[in-house]
Amino acid sequence: HPGGAVALVSHADVIRALLLLVLGMPLDLLLRIQVGPASISEILLGGDYPMVAAVNFNCGMGFLDSTHETK
């Protein structure tokens, strides 16, 4: 999809592994990246190198963040 956007949906560990690959970090740091349910991580491709533009963005949907208490 040259010049277009592609959305991939996956489980958290796969997303973490891809983020580590793009960042040039070893897989043993996998659990140091938080990926919440229904969150968005963005990787920009097409330049000289891939760039991580967003990690664990949830569009202000605080009810999806497991660190918040439910009342």
Question: Could you please describe the fold and organization of this structure?
Answer:
The chain is an alpha+beta fold and 71 residues long. 17% of the residues lie in helices and 17% in strands. It has one helix and two strands. A two-stranded antiparallel sheet has the order 1-2. A hairpin with a 6-residue loop joins strand 1 and strand 2 (51-57). The model has no long low-confidence stretch (mean pLDDT 85).
Secondary structure: helix percent = 10-25%
Terminal residue distance: 44 Å
Strand content: 15-25%
Task: Please report the total strand number as a whole number.
Answer: 2
- Enumerate the strands of the largest sheet in spatial order, edge to edge or round the barrel: 1-2
Query: What is the overall shape?
Result: globular
**Biggest pleated sheet:** 2 strands, antiparallel
| Order of helix and strand elements from N to C terminus | HEE
